[in-house]
Amino acid sequence: MRKKAALFFSILTVVLLVLSSSTYAAGKILVKQGSRGESVRQVQELLIEKGFLSGKADGICGQMTVDAIKLFQRENHLEVDGICGAVTFEALKKAPHHDPKFAAEHHPHKGEAVYVEATAYSAFDPGNGPNTASGTPVRHGVIAVDPSFIPLGSRVYIPGYGEAVAEDIGWGIKGNIIDVAFDTHEEALMFGRQELEIYIIEYGE
């Protein structure tokens, strides 16, 4: 009898430890703008699985991931703050699946999301001319790109900046680096260098 009781309490202890560790892990989930790592990837995979996010889980919480979290929160009557904490994470795990088209139809920014390193420039920077490589004026609404990554003529949406067209190239623009044009040298300096998730609305030819 004592052996059975000891076995029962041993099993109960293991179960409680597993449950408490799961609860602890859920409580440690905190994914917000700029977060990186396995927690982000886990949340992204759930958002994709449930139909709230398109694309691949890259472990980087950019604007697209934040928008997906907000969309999920709105649909499930949670506080809409774009942050996946313990409450949102638990609700996400239990949520039913949506049609894959749901995310594309309900997100505020339509298009393919790509992660880039963005710098800024203007026609008034030392060594710069007034025109792009395409012959158009350097101005707000233009970006310089590596054409092998984003073809010239592509339209993109940049959070905090707006829509832009890829009309320029530069010797230092390689791979997933873009140069964002501004109307003044001061604005370009204020923008600095940022890591961003941008949206390709339409590819150029």
TrEMBL record:
Keywords: Signal. GO terms for molecular function: hydrolase activity, hydrolyzing O-glycosyl compounds. Residues 142-201 form the 3D domain. The keyword Iron does not apply. This is 3D (Asp-Asp-Asp) domain-containing protein. Residues 36-92 form the Peptidoglycan binding-like domain. It holds the Pfam family 3D. It comes from the Bacteria. Residues 1-25 form the signal peptide. GO terms for biological process: peptidoglycan turnover.
